[in-house]
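hiii so um. not sure if this is the right channel but i have a protein structure encoded as tokens and i wanna go backwards to a sequence. like what aa goes where. can anyone help
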């Protein structure tokens, strides 16, 4: 079959590689336009676009798919199927019927739970015990289409977003070949979603600000959900926090206690041990290592501006 892959971020690169190795004809890759990054503001391609260029696959970066330009582009590639992974654009209704087998989306949740833009982060933040991969047929609604295949992935007490993305990618790379093969063979049909939907809205910097006034389990879930960008304030500067562990130690909310090997911060219930911190402008380091150079005293608190 003639395939198109549509994706943008680093997390979609393993799926691009998996699709490229299926033995079908990958006729093009859709990705978001280049963006200005770094101090130089030089335009840089997305991770998917960069990897596609390395693989020798034609890359297309339309600013939008609506209108004649998008329709002409998809039609000109004569696709049988389009595989979408975190593309970042809404697919207009008029494009869905151009490929012979339509468009399928690789979505990182157990649909219909966590439809939307940030399912991995919202699942961890909510304290879910499982996430998963759902590969579904795209239709006009937001992540509403029938599901071709799904696999559950557990969320442990120490699972953070990068770790969960890694596990979801591994599962999705195995699943995508099965789904493409089933669609080509025409032997099965996708199954309608069942259950009450929830929505994973895109998060902001405010969502990533750690709220130490919540119980330890919730604070841990927030940090793990937004790793590596969960942040707090300490003495007027921002610092990022990762690898939290719930302990039985009792400290005031935001209160800090450090030993030679451990760093603890109080919450509304018990304290968290912080495995890694990244002060503004500095690399990640162990929590205890940071504490040794932070000149802490009895009044030191996390979360104060």
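sure thing!! here u go:
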């Amino acid at each position: 079959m003639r395939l198109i892959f549509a994706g943008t971020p680093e997390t979609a690169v393993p799926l691009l590689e998996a699709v490229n190795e299926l033995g079908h004809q990958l006729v093009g890759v859709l990705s978001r336009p280049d963006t200005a990054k770094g101090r130089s503001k030089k335009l840089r391609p997305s991770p998917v676009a960069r990897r596609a260029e390395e693989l020798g696959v034609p890359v297309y970066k339309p600013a939008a798919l609506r209108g004649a330009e998008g329709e002409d582009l998809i039609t000109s590639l004569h696709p049988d199927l389009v595989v979408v992974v975190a593309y970042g654009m809404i697919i207009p209704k008029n494009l869905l019927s151009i490929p012979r087998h339509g468009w399928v989306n690789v979505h990182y949740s157990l649909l219909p739970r966590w439809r939307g833009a940030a399912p991995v982060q919202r699942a961890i933040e909510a304290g879910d015990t499982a996430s998963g991969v759902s590969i579904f047929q795209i239709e006009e609604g937001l992540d509403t289409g029938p599901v071709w295949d799904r696999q559950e992935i557990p969320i442990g007490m120490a699972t953070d977003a990068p770790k969960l993305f890694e596990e979801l990618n591994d599962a999705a790379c195995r699943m995508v070949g099965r789904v493409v093969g089933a669609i080509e063979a025409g032997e099965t049909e996708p199954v309608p979603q069942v259950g009450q939907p929830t929505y994973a809205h895109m998060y902001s910097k405010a969502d990533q600000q750690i709220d130490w006034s919540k119980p330890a389990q919730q604070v841990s879930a927030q940090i793990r959900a937004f790793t590596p960008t969960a942040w707090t304030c300490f003495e007027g500067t921002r610092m990022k926090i990762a690898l939290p562990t719930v302990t039985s130690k009792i400290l005031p909310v935001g209160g800090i206690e450090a030993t030679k090997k451990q760093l603890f911060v109080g919450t509304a219930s018990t304290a968290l041990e912080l495995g890694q911190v990244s002060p503004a402008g500095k690399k990640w380091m162990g929590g205890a290592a940071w504490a040794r150079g932070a000149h802490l005293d009895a009044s030191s608190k996390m979360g104060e501006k």
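oh and The chain has a mean pLDDT of 96.
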